[in-house]
Amino acid sequence: MIYKMLDRYSVRTDLALEEKERFESDHVEVPGVILEEDYDAQSEIRITKVKIETENGAKIMGKPAGTYLTMEAPNMSVPDEDYHREISKKVATYLNKLMEGMELPDRQDLSVLIVGLGNRQVTPDALGPNVVDNLVVTRHIVKEYGKYAMGMEHANQVSAIVPGVMGQTGMESVEIIKGVVDQIKPDLIIAVDALAARNTRRLHRTIQIADTGIHPGAGVGNHRSGLNKETLGVPVIGIGVPTVVDAATIVSDTMENLIHSMEESQILKGVGEALSTYNEAEKYELIKKLISPHLNGMFVTPKDVDEMIKQISFTISEAMNILFNSEVPA
Amino acid sequence: MIYKMLDRYSVRTDLALEEKERFESDHVEVPGVILEEDYDAQSEIRITKVKIETENGAKIMGKPAGTYLTMEAPNMSVPDEDYHREISKKVATYLNKLMEGMELPDRQDLSVLIVGLGNRQVTPDALGPNVVDNLVVTRHIVKEYGKYAMGMEHANQVSAIVPGVMGQTGMESVEIIKGVVDQIKPDLIIAVDALAARNTRRLHRTIQIADTGIHPGAGVGNHRSGLNKETLGVPVIGIGVPTVVDAATIVSDTMENLIHSMEESQILKGVGEALSTYNEAEKYELIKKLISPHLNGMFVTPKDVDEMIKQISFTISEAMNILFNSEVPA
Amino acid sequence: MIYKMLDRYSVRTDLALEEKERFESDHVEVPGVILEEDYDAQSEIRITKVKIETENGAKIMGKPAGTYLTMEAPNMSVPDEDYHREISKKVATYLNKLMEGMELPDRQDLSVLIVGLGNRQVTPDALGPNVVDNLVVTRHIVKEYGKYAMGMEHANQVSAIVPGVMGQTGMESVEIIKGVVDQIKPDLIIAVDALAARNTRRLHRTIQIADTGIHPGAGVGNHRSGLNKETLGVPVIGIGVPTVVDAATIVSDTMENLIHSMEESQILKGVGEALSTYNEAEKYELIKKLISPHLNGMFVTPKDVDEMIKQISFTISEAMNILFNSEVPA
Amino acid sequence: MIYKMLDRYSVRTDLALEEKERFESDHVEVPGVILEEDYDAQSEIRITKVKIETENGAKIMGKPAGTYLTMEAPNMSVPDEDYHREISKKVATYLNKLMEGMELPDRQDLSVLIVGLGNRQVTPDALGPNVVDNLVVTRHIVKEYGKYAMGMEHANQVSAIVPGVMGQTGMESVEIIKGVVDQIKPDLIIAVDALAARNTRRLHRTIQIADTGIHPGAGVGNHRSGLNKETLGVPVIGIGVPTVVDAATIVSDTMENLIHSMEESQILKGVGEALSTYNEAEKYELIKKLISPHLNGMFVTPKDVDEMIKQISFTISEAMNILFNSEVPA
Questions:
Q1: Which of B124, B257, B265, D269 is least enclosed, having the fewest CB within 10 Å?
Q2: What letter would DSSP give residue D69?
Q3: What pLDDT, in 10s, does the model give residues D184-242?
Q4: Nearest alpha-carbon partner for A130 in A114, A109, A143, A116
Q5: Mean per-residue pLDDT for D75-96?
Q6: What is the pLDDT of residue C281?
Q7: In this complex, do B171 and C178 lie within 8 Å of one another by their Cβ atoms?
């Protein structure tokens, strides 16, 4: 089908869930990939766990093997303090679950480096920097005064950095972070980034937490190297929120809709068949014509992106403040 | 044709030039609308003047009668200080020409209020606020010390305001500006706003200057009331730069491309004909299905929108600083 | 005494409480001024009410007649969410009390304009703009959909504006606000501003709420016209937080300390007497020499002013969100 | 004298020039320290070179041995584009001179890391981050496309980082920068920081360029470790602009003025003598009483600090853009 071609050439999603859905829509089972769902009717929060278990599954999915938790809530971008507190707690819980599956040292005296990826100057890409702005960092205090001075038996050391983007620094994010990691040797890195989704309905309503870090192609800007245990030498959890859809994806979706409509239409029933007679080369030519080259490097985002980024970045900061800075009973 | 329908239901451009081009592409003359073009090969700056002379022309164009100057330069978003200085001077010159056509008091002792429309928190909508940030305002100095204290025979009084957007203020921009105008009674208002274009190629490469002010539907956010002599009691010049394309427009353009491709295709030649048998209601239903409701309130913008906004807002500020703050020889 | 002279020539405080304390330190009763204190030992919050009842009292105090509530809490600048929530509620309560003393229309269907005074670009002056950033504005929603659409029997209309400072706008804040007030005709204005204190201990630990609005000389920047019922035609409540001390005040305080030390010193006991032989003119000359002219336009502020402004502006926003946007039982 | 005591306990300046002046005012020669002055009457720019040649000189001056260039210009904070361009060129020239004295590889193919120290959220401390915002970084382009693609025979690789402050990151700046340096191995580091001066007259009118880097105590915030060849393994040039004066310094200066006045006064002539009878311990007690503990961590800065920071950070960025990004003739 023509939209398969479009998919291959242009559709991009950073959500493992959406990648999985593509195969489901074709009724294709992906070997080595497990899906679990959980829905809380009261809070309307849906948790989906995509577990990529094999290298083959990773290849088909185009994402590294590992666990991807997706939390979806329709009201995530609505300003309701209590509701956001609830989501923050859930995020903290799921972060904690992921951490239990990783080989970490004593989890009450962890050194965690939180990385806010993205460009502070471009609103939909400012999620990471905004999350860092609201974090309570403690590493310098614990190092200076010790945990007892803080009245605590255990104390995590939280540090944070906003590396900026290549156009501002002349460096890849991974270069900066690798350097910092070599200096402060954290036990765990949590990298927060704005993601690209395939479906506009997911924007600002979805949080993905993955134990695979951040991989190339994720994010609004393109990171060319992944942030993961291989590149940084330390386990990396990636937290992402889809804030944009690639402009080419929007177009591709509409094409798909058009063709479905044609197939269903009595009058146009011949069109789908006609299209199916196209050979690969012809289809590729058609696609090249249709997707304007000017759409490269363009993204789609909602007008109220500022409010959404503000809400959801605060929710994620709070999740980490809860997880790492609440006193652990001795 | 189906794309006509799409046009009617969804395509939006704030550029008079693009509105005019639509009719040209259909080989339709618009009565009461005059087009003049001027191209400077060396600087690659193209000036187009669309003059809507009659009420009928205004109705067809969907824009108020008046003069719309459009300056296009391919390198407008490239950081080259000297080139930007040249564009600033051109903008100053054309602003001045427009002002000569308006009934203004002595043009060396003008009181000008510059309005930076848009939302500072959403990068592609921050053009107006950014322009105001770089302006040299002088009204308070002239009022306090007089123009002689400034060593000048004549002195314009430049004031500036960033009214914010409705979601931040609870007020329409026009309410705030009307109030300020009633207080300080300027001779002229210049309102700067980010615009929506139809074509991604025009983003950040085009400046439109119009003696008709800002009209409803212009801008990235929707202003519900126009800013013009009728609403404010003072002549209003609108300066706009297209920074986004409506998501629905992108889709519509691609649909158009698809249909053209189908018409040209031997295999698919039947489709165009089939579509032409659709009646109005059927077409409208098809369109409604195709344009996802989730695209409402979504826009398309380039990833490097931050750099572009920075460059072009500085260029426009400089134009006004040159025009209003350079000493006029006695 | 010499420090009296210094007081007269240079010391400035925007806090009625500090003005009152000056007279107390001299054991002087100010006629027409009443002081009430209330201290909550558990929350460590001290409420002081200075009521200036007569024109004579106003003249002596250098502040307009009216009620000035001062809330002091030592931990106001410490990031503790629950504690700040408690302070927000107290501020809401005291705002409400002040409003009960004013002649306002039905207090469940009020139109309130909140004004964020000050310069967003200068950290200690950014209190007002930061407060507005966190407000929930509702006027546009109530106007568009009506209060029933919001599921409420009553609905206040909250609007907000950040007028900027004269160096950015070329206009006095009062000109902009007067214009807006004439357009939207609110029942009440609440103006938030950063204040100058006399004592560094009060910085970021004190909130003053006054039914007299904002008067000339208040704030970090100098507003030349007051914001009050006389200038705006609408009652104005002023909310202020001291964020700076005038540089000249710091110097004056130290001089005072020096002279006290000298008086207490056996060795230096002659100095105080010597100083007291100075006549007025001689004293004034001495003062002029001592206070460096370069201190004009300089202020003193703590290094962590960013954290303090962030905390306290959020607390004040929340107070107004609680007061105006919580549903009132029918 | 008492003000000597105050000096010892509280006065702080990051300017080598001011440190030198202190000794001059006491007619004390500092061995191992050379001073050269140059004044351009037309541009009113004064260049002072303080060269600390011996370890003994360094000890007395409280600054590492090396060369400190100070450029003073009365109009540095006035917005005049041409004048700032001139200063930018001078800064570029003097940077270049300092670099000639350092052992650097081929100076047309340098890799330079520019570090913007300080806190973006506190206006007078935002100099470093603002300088980085206006830099043209090129390292990523040269690395990706090579210098020939840029149409240049030689091409410097400029990279830049804003490390943030400890309260935001939980890390010392030196930890972050050391990490980055180990990764990208630049030939030279240029660190830009806001400084504390002793004299308010120097604020925003002075640029210090030193081949000794940034040493502890410099800057508005306190860096606890220096940035220099010893800590980073790479030569470091420090560029600093005084933007604040310590609050305690202001007080100390006024005390000095008071005592001078007393000495000159007929009536008070006994006071100076009386003070001179104080022994060390008594003097120290007096000082402790006089300098309020609440002045710790407080600084003095002008109200128009926003405009000054904007002007001067742009001037410094331009200096580096001129020095590193203008094509070098083959």
A1: D269
A2: E
A3: 999 999 999 999 998 888 898 999 999 999 987 667 766 678 999 999 999 999 999 99
A4: A116
A5: 86
A6: 61
A7: no
pTM (2 d.p.) = 0.91
- Alpha-carbon dihedral angle through residues C96, C99, C104, C110, given to the nearest 10 degrees: -40
Q: Six-digit token pair at B163? A: 């009214």
Look at D30 and D46; give whichever has higher pLDDT.
D46
Which chains pack against D, by 3+ Cβ pairs within 8 A? A, C
Q: How many other C-beta atoms are found inside a 10 Å radius of the C-beta of residue A216?
A: 12
Cβ of D292 and C123 within 8 Å? Answer: no
Distance CA C297, CA C167 (A): 14
Q: DSSP state, A109? A: S
Sorting pLDDT into bands at 50, 70 and 90, what band is D267? low
- Residues with Cβ within 8 Å of residue B314, at least 6 apart in sequence: B84, B130, B134
Say if residues D295 and C200 touch (Cβ distance below 8 Å). yes
**Of the candidates D230, D254, D251, which has an alpha carbon nearest to the alpha carbon of residue D294?**
D251
**What pLDDT was estimated at residue C301?**
92
The residues in C 259-278 lying below 8 A from D, measured between CB atoms, are 261-262, 267-268, 270-271, 274-275, 277-278
Distances (CA, A) of D251 to C247, C257, C292, D124, D287: 9, 11, 11, 20, 11
Q: Are C239 and C87 in contact (CB under 8 A)?
A: no
Contact C291, C240 (CB under 8 A): no
Measured in angstroms, the CA of C293 and the nearest CA of chain D are apart by 10
Residue C275 has pLDDT above 50, yes or no: yes
Tell me whether D255 touches chain C (CB under 8 Å): yes
The predicted-structure confidence for C91-103, as pLDDT tens digits, reads as follows 999 999 999 989 8
φ and ψ at A271, to 5 degrees?
-70, -45
Residue B8 reports pLDDT greater than 80: no
With an 8 Å Cβ cutoff, is A293 touching chain B? no
d(CA A39, CA A46): 4
The encoded tokens of residue B70 equal: 């459009």
CA atoms within 13 A on the CB side of D232: 34
**What crossing angle do the helices spanning B247-264 and B269-276 adopt, rounded to 10°?**
120
* CA distance between the termini of chain A: 61
Phi (first) and psi of residue C187, to 5 degrees: -80, -25
pLDDT of A313 > 90? The answer is: yes
| Average pLDDT for D53-71 | 92
Residue B240 contacts residue B194 (beta carbons within 8 Å): yes
CB contact under 8 A, B158 and C170: yes
What does the pLDDT read at residue C223?
65
Q: What is the mean pLDDT of residues B300-307?
A: 91
Q: Quick one: pLDDT at residue A110?
A: 94
The 10s digit of each residue's pLDDT in C162-172 is 999 999 999 99
Q: What is the dihedral of CA C70, C73, C77, C82, to 10 degrees?
A: -110
CA distances from B313 to A297, B119, B239, C121, C217 (A): 21, 14, 11, 18, 35
Which residues 25-54 on chain C approach chain D with CB closer than 8 angstroms?
none
Q: Let me know: does A301 contact A124? Beta carbons within 8 Å.
A: yes
Q: Is C136 on the interface with D (CB under 8 A)?
A: no
The shortest CB-CB distance from C170 to any of B160, B176, B178 is to B160
Inter-residue contact B213 to B226 (CB < 8 Å): yes
DSSP state of B216: T
**pLDDT tens across D125-159, in order?**
999 999 999 999 999 999 988 877 666 777 899 99
Name the residue among D125, D250, D274 with its Cβ closest to that of C247. Answer: D250
Residue C137 and residue B180: Cβ atoms within 8 Å? Answer: no
Judged against a pLDDT cut of 50, whether residue C319 lies above it is answered with yes
